[in-house]
Design brief:
The protein is an alpha+beta fold. 16% of the residues lie in helices and 43% in strands. Strands 1, 2, 3, 4, 5, 6, 7 and 8 form an 8-stranded mixed β-sheet that branches.
């Protein structure tokens, strides 16, 4: 008899908004990841495309709109204590309309690429985020013990020019 638990998958989005050499991050105020700086995003609702979810979450969490989103990668996260695997579709926007505003869920703040607060972010961000901000596509898998310790990871990085070919 097989007693292993089949993993479930939760599809999520993450949006990085950049303006020159800076990135807009949000301090998560509640829920999963509270107390950490992160990009904007969340769950894909039933009947919603992944890109539509990214746009909706960005608008709901920061008050800004983006004319276009570029898909720049996919990251998966597994937590030892949870059979659900998180599949996160990462987008980048280099233009936006509106002014970022604080919401019930997030407090937005601009950071220069050189001043990103990695010590107050998810531990995986220091592996893939610099590549994403440099215009590379990323694909990674991270396994966590608890929420602070990465016990294994794989990361593939591809130059954007090669990805477009």
């Amino acid at each position: 008899m097989n007693t292993s638990i089949e993993p479930r998958k939760k599809v999520l989005t993450l949006c990085l908004v950049t303006d020159g050499g800076r990135v807009l991050l949000g301090m998560k105020k509640r829920g999963f990841g509270a107390g950490r700086w992160n990009g904007f995003g969340g769950k894909v609702e039933a009947g919603e495309t992944i890109e539509a979810a990214a746009r909706r979450e960005l608008r709901e969490e920061s008050g800004i709109e983006v004319p276009s989103l570029a898909g720049i990668g996919t990251l998966t996260f597994a937590f030892e204590e949870d059979p659900t695997v998180m599949e996160v579709h990462v987008f980048r926007a280099d233009a936006f309309t509106g002014d970022p505003v604080e919401t019930e869920e997030m407090r937005p703040q601009w950071f220069a690429f050189a001043d990103i607060p990695f010590d107050a972010m998810w531990p995986d961000d220091r592996f893939w985020l610099p590549h994403a901000l440099a215009g590379r596509r990323v694909r990674g898998h991270f396994v966590f013990e608890g929420e602070n310790t990465i016990i294994s990871h794989e990361l593939e990085v591809e130059d954007a020019e090669r990805a477009a070919a």
